[in-house]
Design brief:
Largest sheet: 8 strands, mixed
Number of strands: 25
Number of helices: 25
Structural class: alpha+beta
Strand order of the largest sheet: 10-9-11-12-24-23-20-17
Distance between the termini: 29 Å
């Protein structure tokens, strides 16, 4: 086998075939690498790899067309076929020689992520998984081309038939969709030849065992078919006629059946054993929040996908497979609106997008529109949109919690004192918690509604009335819960005397002045933009110990000790912090005469015991901008997580079931134009031309020596 391997490998580079293959692959991969990565700044080369896959449909037939057909045409195959070498070793030597040439080409591409790493952060997991998928696909294509080459004497016919076979595999998913949008027995058989769907799974950032196994089994099957084709040819040479024996046919059936069975067996394994998320943002992995919800699930939940299984969004399918793999109570079913238009009309009267979902339990159901699964950023100057986020897990987890909850809590948001309003991001946080929100104007009601799970008071700029303060205290006396954020004022008790009576209920006061942090590691840009220490608590789960909370313009909190009141510090500043009591005349952010020395507590959870069963609770955050988009965007949704956890605690949820949107926006690669064009010129022009020139010189020299 080694002798055949060396002979074939040298033959590729004694002719122009190997050099042309390397130059063509390097040129096209370099072109897309230049356009997508160097010029547009994509950090991952997955898109580059996906765009150059089609090149293999052209280059692989050229690489494989002479592997066996040329031997037959020149009758040199008879020397090999009658030699004391097994057919398997002959095929292995030829196949490995072609794969080696392809490996050299792919090895050049492996350098691309390393080049990009000099200009920014590169998601190596995504990039090299995409290269692995491209490599396995190419090796499978070579196996097909080798088999086709064994069937004919003509190199041209071998190349054309190989291209046709590879093109068929490349387009099979589209062909089966044309045959039947819902799928049938014929399309299931044809989908065995669908090489691109499993390729796409790995190109999108998931290391799929089933995809790797599929390509490896594809290679082995066509390797075996090539051996069988040559075996018959060898038998014909030795006995003078062709005979189709039962041994050959039986073994083909056994090998095909074994390959199908093995792939089906892996397909049935839970996705947690066969699918590994390699994206830097963990786009396709389920969070601990979801895992905890599924672990405690005790009733069946049906998730209906309004699409055929063949045409379903592949990313969404990966997510749903993980849900089904983690809980036997999750049942995923496909309902194609084209084949069964009456199904979704049982749940909604309006129009609904394909790939939308209906999540249903015995209690209730909810509809997840596919249009909400992905987030886009629109550029109105160019009328283009960019995919920025994936919210599949967040919406599905929220829907499962909703349909299995005993009741749906309601939060009342105080209005009438020019308070802040929740942005769409934080309103979505409430929705994902399956919490509804209602406005509450205390001037128009006699009391806080009994069904109120909590009251949100978001940084009012004017004080409430004495009567309104009493209504809030009456609500607390009944076991109520309040989340309050405050606006900065020199003296809170003087500016908001009636709100202060609500704080007095818990023995809490707000310190005079504005907190300034003098530890550089605990503020951002300026000392009043706090990055406080986060205490470990249920409310700070997912934030404490790993993330910053951004808290601009905060004030300190003090409280009196009491037997029936427990106060827990959530966010605190360092000992070097001060409260600037005369900010207008301050000369420095450090301590001056009249300032109050730290450390300070800037967020607390206060609980007052009313009786054996009831407690009144207050969550106080002394920063007006804490729960706003501007502050939240600075710390990668840590403020949103704190908000969601607080809402969960107020609604007896304990742990938040809100999963933030997963960002598609990886860090960009910044390459200046001069460097980009230089690298592009080397990869697209200089190296391919150098390979062709060197190959041409070697080929001409080889011909002259032979003559």
């Amino acid at each position: 086998m080694l002798a055949i391997y060396k002979r074939e490998f040298r033959a590729y580079f004694h002719s122009m075939t190997g050099w042309l293959f390397l130059a063509a692959n390097l040129f096209l991969s370099g072109l897309y690498f230049f356009a997508l990565n160097l010029r547009y700044g994509y950090a991952s080369i997955a898109n580059t790899m996906y765009n150059i896959v089609f090149l293999l449909l052209i280059t692989v037939p050229i690489l494989t067309m002479r592997m066996l057909s040329e031997e037959r045409r020149q009758k040199t195959d008879q020397l090999i076929l009658t030699a004391p070498v097994s057919v398997g070793k002959i095929v292995a030597g030829k196949y490995l020689s072609a794969v080696t040439v392809f490996t050299i080409s792919t090895g050049m591409i492996c350098v691309y992520p390393l080049i990009l790493s000099a200009f920014g952060t590169v998601p190596f997991g995504e990039s090299y998984t995409a290269i692995l998928a491209y490599y396995l696909y190419g090796c499978a294509c070579i196996a097909i081309g080798m088999f086709v080459s064994s069937l004919t004497e003509s190199q041209v016919i071998a190349a054309v038939l190989s291209f046709g076979a590879l093109f068929l595999g490349y387009m099979m998913s589209s062909i089966t969709a044309l045959i039947s949008s819902t799928g049938n027995f014929l399309t299931r058989i044809l989908n065995v030849l669908d090489m691109t769907t499993l390729l796409t799974d790995m190109m999108q950032g998931t290391l799929e065992v089933k995809s790797v196994l599929y390509f490896l089994s594809f290679i082995l099957v066509f390797f075996f078919l090539t051996v069988q084709s040559i075996q018959k040819r060898r038998y014909q040479v030795s006995v003078g006629h062709l005979k189709m024996g039962a041994y050959s046919t039986g073994m083909i059936a056994v090998v095909l059946a074994a390959a199908v069975f093995l792939n089906l067996a892996v397909e049935e394994l839970p996705s947690r054993y066969t699918s590994f998320d390699v994206t830097s943002e963990r786009l396709y992995s389920l969070t601990d929040t979801t895992k905890e919800l599924l672990a405690g699930l005790e009733e069946d939940v049906n998730i209906y996908i309004l699409e055929s299984e063949e045409n379903q969004d592949t990313v969404l399918k990966q997510t749903l497979d993980k849900y089904a793999g983690l809980s036997s109570h999750i049942h995923v079913e496909y309902q194609d609106p084209v084949a069964n238009p009456g199904f979704y009309q049982q749940y909604t009267d309006g129009n609904i997008s394909m790939n939308s979902m209906i999540v249903e339990s015995d209690r209730r159901y909810t509809v997840i529109d596919y249009a909400d699964i992905y987030e886009y950023e629109y550029d109105y100057s160019s009328y283009t949109s960019t995919l920025t986020g994936y919210d599949g897990e967040g919406l599905i987890t929220s829907a499962i919690a909703y349909v299995t909850s005993d009741d749906i809590p309601t939060m009342y948001v105080l209005e009438g004192q020019d308070e802040l309003t929740l942005s769409t991001t934080f309103q979505d946080g409430l929705s994902k918690q399956n919490v509804t929100s209602e406005s509450l104007n205390l001037l128009t009601v006699d009391s806080v509604p009994e069904e109120a799970e909590g009251v949100l008071i978001l940084a009012p700029t004017a004080d409430i009335s004495t009567d309104d303060a009493q209504k809030l205290i009456d609500y607390l006396d009944a076991g109520g819960r309040i989340l309050m954020t405050t606006s900065y004022t020199d003296n809170f008790a003087e500016s908001f005397p009636n709100l202060q009576t609500v704080l007095d209920y818990f023995g809490i006061s707000i310190t005079e002045g504005l907190v300034a942090e003098n530890d550089p590691s605990m503020y951002y840009q300026q000392p009043s933009y706090l990055l406080p220490d986060v205490a470990y608590d249920t409310v700070t789960d997912g934030v404490a110990g790993g993330q910053y909370v951004f808290m601009p313009y905060a004030q300190g909190i003090t409280w009196e000790e009491s037997d029936d009141i427990a106060v827990t510090s959530l966010l605190t500043t360092s000992e070097s912090s001060v409260s600037k009591t005369n900010l207008d005349e301050a000369q420095t952010w450090e301590w001056e005469e009249g300032d109050i020395e730290g450390p300070f507590t800037v967020a607390v959870h206060a609980s007052k015991t009313l009786d054996d069963e009831n407690t009144a609770e207050l969550y106080l955050y002394t920063s007006e901008n804490l729960f706003t988009d501007s502050a939240n965007s600075m710390v990668a949704d840590a403020n949103l997580t704190l908000f969601n956890n607080t809402i969960a605690a107020m609604t007896d949820g304990g742990t938040s079931v809100s999963v933030p949107v997963k960002s598609y926006q990886a860090s960009d690669i910044m390459v200046n134009d001069g460097t980009a064009f230089l690298l592009g010129s080397v990869l697209m022009v200089i190296l391919p031309l150098a390979l062709l020139l060197f190959g041409l010189i070697r080929w001409i020299t080889s011909r002259n020596l032979n003559e």
